[in-house]
Amino acid sequence: MTSMLPPTRDLPPGRHTQIRAELERAAGGRGRSRLTVPILAAAAAVFSVAAGVVLLRPAPSDPTPLVQITSPAPTSAPVDFGVPPETVAAITEGCAKAGGVATATLRQLVLDEPRWALLYTDGDALSCHIGEGRDGYSVFAMRGDTRWLAGHFSVDEMSSAAGGDAPGVQRGEAGKRGFHQVGGRVSERVARVTLSADNLVVDAKVVNGTYAARIYYPSTWRFPENGPSPVVRVYDAAGNLLGSSDTSWQTCYQNPQTGELVGSVRQQPTDQCQPATPWK
Question: Which residue in 99, 220, 242, 276 is a FRET match for 42, CA 20 to 30 A apart?
Answer without folding.
Answer: 242
